[in-house]
Structures are given as structure tokens and as C-alpha cells.
User: Fold these one by one.
Assistant:
Number 1:
Amino acid sequence: MNDIEYLKKYYKGNINDAIKRLNNGEAIQYIIGSVNFYGNEIKVNKNVLIPRFETEELIENTLSYINKYFDTPKILDIGTGSGCIAITLKKELPNSIVHALDISDEALGVARENAKENNTDITFFKSNMLDNIKDKYDVIISNPPYIDYNDNEIMDIVKNNEPHIALFAEDNGLYYYKEILKNCSKNLNKKSIIAFEIGYKQASDIKEITLKYFPNSKIIVKQDLQKKDRFIIILNNCE
């Protein structure tokens, strides 16, 4: 099914206007206003990143470790955006406690609406990373901005549509991983999991950063369906 056929099937407004927007380079997900993510309908607009298949894989990988080590986990999603990660984890783990944060008021508005539409009880915080977070968690999960500002591989449709605050990071794309790993020990229980989606060239650097702050952790690098390093799972005192 090509994009125009997809619009005709799912777009509920004036199809000619939708095709014009598509031809002007607007992302089809923003035109339709929602995406199917892990079987859930997630509303999206230009204030939030469009959820991707790789992030579904992040959840799938993380769930396997959560289910192995925790019965009723308390989870924090950092940089929640549309809320897709937090909502999915809450639906897959109904006995869990799920908190989520973002620095963007607009993104939090979208996330709260999605949580309500998906009948999920999630506590949202406005916070610059972990600045306003006092609780301790069993699991911290994040798909932070990780694209280097000088990256030439990013597609124009992504660069021209999606919020740059959710895409780009300083320090070769590593800034937010460093910030989380440097500061998150105060918010983690002794037995805990940290799960990241990463840029496919960043695994070795993030492993090095992790060992600086969690020298006794077990670090697992997982590949996506394209056989690229895409996820890092950090286990603390889980074995």
C-alpha cells in the first residue's frame, strides 16, 4: 500500500488536502494524526517524535528482562514524548507502577491524552531529565535524542518534520546518555534495569560511559531487525 492509498484508507478529513500536505513533504503520520504502536493507537503531532518499529523492539527486549527479574516493577520513562513507551509497558505489565517525564509541556499534553485514550494509569512529570524526580525505580527506560547535529544520514522528511528537541543531542549524540547515567543512581533501587535505544554506532561509547558510573553492571547490547546495534540493557545486581 503506497502513501496515497494509505491516506485514502485512514485519513478522515478532506483527502485532497491530505494529498497536498503529503506532496509538500509533511510526514504521513502527522497528517493522519496517529500511529499503531505495539497494537495501540497513539496520537501524534509535530510536538512529539513519531514512534518507530525500533522502539517497539526496545520494549520487547526490556519486557523480557523485567519479567525475569521483577513481579511488580516501578518504571520511569525518560523523555516520554507521545507516551508510547510508558503506555505500552503499563498495558503489558498491568501490576506495574509507571511514571514518565518530559521537558516539553506540549509533548506532555499529547502523552496525557494518549494515556487517557488507552485507559492507562500513568503519572507524568515535567522535568529536565531527572532534576525533579525524587522516587526510586526498578527500571529506567529511555529513547533519548541521540542524533549528532552533524549527522548527514538523517532523512529530510525526519529533519523537516519532527521536533529537533527529540532528535538531536550534543557531544556526538551522547549527551543525554551521559546525563542519565551520571545522575540516575539516586533514582534506582539496588536491583535495577536501565534500558536504552541507541544510535547504531554508539554502543561502544555508551558501554564505556556505563562502566564509569556502574562498574559492576552487566551490559547487554541487542541488535534490531536490521542487524544493527540498537539497544543497551544494563543489569544492576540482577544475577
Number 2:
Amino acid sequence: MESQLDEIRRSFDQELGQAREPGDIEKLRIRYLGRKGRLTSVLRLMGKLDPGERPRIGKISNELKAYMESRLRALGAELTEGKEISARLDVTLPGRACRRGSIHLINQVLGEIEDLFMDLGFSVVNGPEVEDDYHNFEALNIPPYHPARDMQATFYFSEKTLLRTHTSPVQIRIMESSDLPIRVIAPGKVYRSDSDVSHTPMFHQVEGLWVEEGINFSHLKGVLEAFVHTIFGPDVPLRFRPSYFPFTEPSAEVDIGCFICGGKGCRVCGNTGWLEILGCGMVDPAVYDYVGIRDESVTGFAFGLGVERVAMLKYAVDDIRLFFDNDLRFLTQFS
């Protein structure tokens, strides 16, 4: 009888593999499990078996019956669902094209900036967005009483822990942990409590730092001229205007010729013909004291730029909030 059960299982598997319609499943159920089915007919012969064999054969028979019922249910459900889908599907309808995404404009501009500076020999470094007061302010020559802290509109977690207000703390961490020469840029998110058409509470900065023997302001000028002419075009004029930052001395702001009026003066540029894009300067010697650089022959420069501001100027965007509103009508223009 055991050989008969094996033969029934092989035959059942073969016929089940040929089933293509829900009706085929019912026919198989009747053929094998119905009142006159093949398995039922064999089970009726159990009474003629030796009493010692009945438990073992009974177990095999029950397992086979459960196997058949399970396979029939599964295939029946699969064939029925396939029929329902086929009935709903109109293959004559035109296909639906998949919508393609694109890289966000800010990431596009950030990628351009990173590629440019890597071509100039800079490495890309990163640091924590949750910073301590020492690296964000004090080591950058901004002590607790300094008025520049009021300009930052800082998000504090505690007296000594905050969301970084610029990526300059990465420069301090790199100078603390790296050997000279140092030539790096530090791109990343920064946070300030400010929101209007030209400011958001979160935005992106790229800080640059070059420190080694013999670096002077002409190196800084050459690097930033390469940046401006690569990003905005070779004919864009630029100027360095004296300014003040606690961690650089001398300091400057870099302006480029206004795209709107061509330098003649308009509402956008405040009738000056110039638009400010970044701040820069030679690293203040006081900063070297904080990071343990004692060699007086070592000099360097630093600069910082806002990625959103660069994108606004390059693509004539008049409201920084458009970058973060997730309006596809705006974003798809830059796909």
C-alpha cells in the first residue's frame, strides 16, 4: 500500500503542474479526494492491513491528504486571482510611463562646488552638526562676551551644546588632528534661528581652509577667482571688499557683478551693481594658538559661502524658501 500512495502522490504532482484554470483544481480534488477518488479508494483498504502496519500507513495517508488539500488551495487561489486581474486588465490601453526623479538643485550646485575645489587639490571633510560651544565659537576667536555671537541666532540644547551655526568648527577639528599642509573644504548643513525670503533656519555652507608655510592673500584671491569664474562664467567681474570676521585677519567679502542690471544698479543689488557671495580672509593667529600650531612661518586662509545663495544668484531664484517647499513645478525646471 505504501508504494500505491507514492504513486498517487507522483501522479497528483504531475497533473497539478498541468492545471491552468480554476475548474481544473475542482476536477483534481474530485479525482483524488472525492468519494470515489484515488486516495479515498486506497484508504478504504486500511481495514485489510496487518494491525501492526495500520498506524504507520495511516500516518502516511493523512500526511498525503493534507499535502494535496494544501496544494489545491494554494494553486486555486493563485489561478482565481490571476483570472480576476486578467478580467480587469485592458491590454489595449497605452502604457503609463514611470516618472523620473532628479537631483535637487541644491545638491547639484553643491556637487559642482565640491568637484571644482577637488580639482584645485582640496579634500572634502565633514564634522558633527551637533557641536560644542568651544569648537563653534571659542576656538574660532569668539569668546562668550563677543558681539558676533548675537549675529548667529543660535539653537542651543544646553549652555555648551548647540546646532552648529557654520561649518567652520570642522576647520578647527581638522587643524587639531591633522598634519600640515592642510587643504580642505567642509560642506554641510548649518542652523540659525532666522527665516525670510533670503534666510532659512537650515541651510548649506561650504567652508574652505588652506594652511601651510608661505600662504598669502594672493593664493586666496587666485582660488576664489577660479571659483567665481567656473561657477558663474569667465566674464563675471568680482571684487574683494574689506570686512570683519573674528577668526580671520585681514578679512574680506567677495562681490560679483549683478546679473540683473549688468552692474548699472538696480533694486536687487541696492543700486550698487554688486552682489555679495562669500566671506574670506587670512586665518587669525589667535586661532592657531587654540589648535596648537606654533610655527610662525605657517599661514593660511579660510573662506565660507552659502550654497543656497550661490544657487539663487546662478539661477535667478528670488526666494530661498522655494528650495524647500517641494513644489515640483519649481524643482523640475532644474532636472
Number 3:
Amino acid sequence: MGFRCGIVGLPNVGKSTLFNALTQTAAAQAANYPFCTIEPNVGRVAVPDPRLQKLAAISKSANVIETQLEFVDIAGLVRGASTGEGLGNQFLGNIREVDAIVHVLRCFEEGDVTHVEGRVDPIADAETVETELMLADLESLEKRVPALAKKATQGDKEAKVQASVLGQALDLLRDSKPARLAEPKDEEERKALDRAQLLTAKPILYVCNVDEADAASGNAHSARVFEKAKAEGAKAVVISAAIEAEIATMPAEDRAEFLKDLGLGETGLSQIIRAGYELLDLITFFTVGPKEARAWTVEKGSKAPQAAGVIHTDFERGFIRAETIAYEDFIAQGGESGARDAGKLRSEGKEYVTRDGDVMLFRFNV
């Protein structure tokens, strides 16, 4: 698994331009009018990880397979979406299906690009979108929570768990706060909150779309967004969609020099991936052999059988053990054989918590 990000925002903030650049496709029509993206466009990109190339070189792997990141470019939202304005119902339905929200905010002043509300104010834009999401969640929970509370009083244990955590989310929404601020008291409540697919419970990454001149250091607009993100426990990055679009058309060998000339250390894609992994508490483990070297993504805290299940459900069902080498040890000892001889290969059982960079071989029996 990688993770699935929904790219959202008001019309004409640069969503489709960014989507095209990140996925290096022209699948989304980037045009200067609202709703140029009618159906959600889906693009997958490989997650760059230099560790994977080093592992493959040592093991002489025939194929190298990166983990995948999926972007969904979702039609622009306008004020009133929660009551069906614009493409509201479609927009809200598409957001429910993603793991995290990448909220693109206009932080550039260019007059040639029309703003749907006639002004440049990224904080107001963010609040417009979040208000619509909160209104949709509020309407949903005001119908569901009373019914769950009634079932809970009748002895339904699952309804009791749901009523507790969703009731807390409802109180937050009534106080004009997003459901992501809810604090489930245990794992059962956390899962119940996840299953509810509340729009405002999704982790959020703000992307400040700036002019080329501000790409390295940001500007006054992006500074305000970073303050907002910090206050919410969210993440924010500064990107120029125009620069990303230019990078997408370049030969790979020219990109590093181009970024250096602009004072940038990495591409916007790399920034989004890193911030997204932090936001969702994701880590990477590897499987390596002569046929292929491959990266896999799991949630931080996943035990060895869960990691095995990412590869195939049979691996988790019949899990016996995981032969594990830390990435640093694999490199230092020149591969599996050297690590084994140096005593760096460990046999881990069902309770082992997977660590970022682990090189793993799963033993199973079904």
C-alpha cells in the first residue's frame, strides 16, 4: 500500500496543474474556469526512495519496484457544496474515499487567473472548504448519533462504541471544530471513527501554491497558512505548481541542476510524499532478492504479520516468522549473507513491531 490523497480546493487555485505535474500526465484538463475537472482523475506515482536502489544494487535484483502513491484530482468546491451547489455532492462523495486531503490554496497574486470569489485570501479559502465539509458531517451525524444512542441503551455493544466517539465528533462540529480533533479512548473507538468516513476526520496537508519567485522561501500568504496548520496539528508545504509543471517535462538528469538554480532542494512531489507519510504515520519496509527489490508501506506500529499481509493475505494468515535485517546492517555487511554471518539477521515472531527500513523475508504456511 501507498496512500491515496484527494487534491481539493476552490476552483482555479492550481489543483489540476499540480495534479498533472505530480503525475507527469495531461489527464486533467487545466483551464481557467471552474469545474474543468468533472470526474476525479486518478494518477499513480512511484515513491522515490534511494535506499531501494542501494539494496537492489547489492542484491543484483533484476527488477526494482517502488511503492505507489495515488493522487485523486477532485472537482473544485464552491460555497454551498454541502447543500449541492456546484458539484458539491460529487465532490463530498469523492473525498470520503481518500486517506488524506491535500488542500491546495492559492498564495499567488497573478491577476490573469480568475479567483472564484474575486480575491486572494488562502485562509478564507481554507475556511470555505472546511465549513462545507463540517456542514456535511454535521448533517450526517445529527441523523446517525441519536439512532446509535438508542441502540446503545438497548445493550448493543457496537452501537455504544460508535455513539461514544461519534457523539464526541458531533459536539465538536456543533462547536465549529473538525471531527479530527476527536480523541477516541481506545482502539475500538478509533476504528469506529475511521469507519464513519467523516470528511473532517481526514488528515490534512495544506499546499501553498506560490509564484516561481516565492518557491524557495514562501510569502506572506503561505506564512499565514503555516500558522493555521501548526494550530491544527496539520502539515503545510510551499510549492509552485508552475515550476512542478516545468520539471515534469524535463529529462530526469536535468532536474537537480534546475532545482539548484531556483534555490530548491527537492521537488514538490518529494515534499508532499514526506509530509504525507508523517501525516499518516507511514513507514517503509523492503523485500529483496535476485528477482526483485521492492518497497512496501505500512502504518507505524504494524506488527510483522500485518506487514506480511500487505504483500499477500496468505502471508498474514499463515505467518510463522519474519527474518529481518535493519537497512543499515544490510548495507554495511554487503547483503543478506554478510548480515547473517555477522549475526545481524534476526528471527522475529508475531509480536515484532516493523521498523522503517527493515529488510524482511516472511516464512508462512497455509
Number 4:
Amino acid sequence: MNLACGIVGLPNVGKSTLFNAITQAGAEAANYPFCTIEPNVGIVPVPDARLAVIHEHIETKEIIPATLRVVDIAGLVAGASKGEGLGNKFLANIRETHAILHVVRCFEDDDIVHVSGAVDPVSDIGVIELELCMADLDSVQKALLKAEKKARSQDADAKVEVGVLERAAAHLESGKLLRSGATWSEKDLVILGRLFPLTMKPVLYVCNVAEDDVAGESPLVAAVTEHAASHGAEAVTLCAQIENELAALSPEDKAVFLEDLGLDTGGLDRLARAAFHLLGLMTFFTAGPKEIRAWTIRRGAKGPEAAGTIHTDFEKGYIRAEVYAVDDLVQLGSETEIRAKGRMRVEGREYVMRDSDVAHFLIGR
């Protein structure tokens, strides 16, 4: 699935440093606003220990993790929706993504300039979210003018659209995100979805902390976590600078580094898992002598849709799937034993895939 998360935030909060870490793409990172002039795009491998577990029992030539597309977007400032800073160009870049990773500065450092002069993460969040609201309001008001014109000619659908857009405009004018504090019907969401609203996108707040606060125990992190909870969102804590250093290490050295920090997993692992949850995704696997591979599907996807992620023709030609869980492989040791013990399930077109399924698809021509 070609899903993308956009990394947003004020200038100098650590967006590009984080992007460097998760993609190892070497995006320029510097201590001045608007270092990121064009959005950097990277394909991020999603860490998944289950791949190594499968490989312990099935020999293969290649191991391929699931991936996530990440877009690093230039820092926004107050007035971006009116063209301040780099303006609407970068709001458009956010509009093309499916979810937002909102990086928030949760550390003090006199050597790193803060655009507003003081570190206040909740205030920073407010600046960004107000600009997203104003950008959406502009889109809604333009669509409303067109809908009102159609409604005057007694177009029934246009009249419904006017009602939805008027409600959305009032919500945004009060500074509220479309995803918060309002209930939208499926029909409402279809109408609003045509505008690709920024404030309807799911958001994950990323607390970028100092190297001496990797556990995220500062009041700054607590403030962001509380804000996220009040908006039905989640927050992840990491140190972008440490993650950038970890990304350059071998797995063995990384494990030692994490142990020295008193951490079980790196922040990027937590970020990837949280992003998958945010997007409503899960993973299934295919495994054989050629490759062991993790595939990304939406939660609730059925067998044919899962097969279609491998090749679009497979969805139409789907006949059935042989399926077992990674835990079955751990317990019984091989696919041969899984079959012998009757744990290899045969599933038809209505089967709803489960996270950690290992599947072999039978496809007709």
C-alpha cells in the first residue's frame, strides 16, 4: 500500500534530523529555519522482529520488511495559510499525505534557535494546527461558493453539500480541527473528503526530547501527552539526535547502545508501530526459499485484498489461501509440522486476515 505520513512542525524542532534517522537518506539538517526547501521523500523500512523469527524456521535468499512512505515537509510558521514563510506550497504537500507526524520540540537548548523565542510545545502545536484550520477553511469556503451556486438551481445534492460545508466552515472558524469536537456521517465524510482536509487527517505527536531525557519525563512531554489525549490522539517520545546516531550503527552495536540508555527498543521502532496503528494497518507475511516478506494491509482486509497487495491481478483471480500464524511456526518448527498437526488453515474469499498471518495464495487464471 502506497501510504504516506507527512512530518510537520515549526522550524528547528528536529524534523529533518528525525527524517535522516528513519530513512538514512542524508537530508540536510541545519540550525536555521527553512532548511528543508523541497519536501524530502523516503521509503522507510518498518522494523519487525517477526521476520527474523520466521527466518529461524524457513531458509530464504532475501528478507524484505514492510515499508512506509515518509515526507519531510518544511517548517511551518504563523501565517503559513496566508503565504507567510514558505506558505501554501507546503500545506499542499501535507494534503497529499494520509497521516501527520507532528514533531514537537520538548527540549531546551540555547544554541538552537526557537522561532517564537521560547520553548512551549502546546503553544507550538497551536500555531501549526491553527494554520491547518485556516488552510482548510479557505478550501471549504471556496467549495461552499460553488455549492451555493448549484443549490440556487434547485440541485438537491448541492443543497446537502451546502449544509455540510457551512457546518464545517463554522467549526473551523472557531479554531477547531475537523476531526475533533464534531460528528460526521459517512455522507458528510464523502463530501469533505473531496477537499482532502488537513485537519481530518489522523495525527501522531512526536515529542523530540534531549539526550538526557530519553524516557520523556520532562513537564514538556507531559504537556504534549495531555494535549494528545484530549484530542483523541497519541504521542511518542524519542530523541531525534540519538535515533540519528543509532541508525548508523550495526544491529549489535545498536543493542549495546540501547542497553546503555536503559531502553528495550529504539524510538523509531515505537514510531513505526504507532504510525501503523494510526493508519489502521497490519502486517501479513509470505515465506519461501526466494524471500520472506512483510506486506502491509488495512485492518479488516479479506483474503483477496491481501493477495492484491502482492499483485493486482491476484485479487480478481483469488481462489483460496493456506494460512497459519507465526506463533504456529515457533511452536511446531516447520510448515511440514504445521500441516501434519492440522494447523494449516484453508480460507476462502470471505476470510478476514489477521496480523501475523503467514499466507500462501492459490490464484486462478
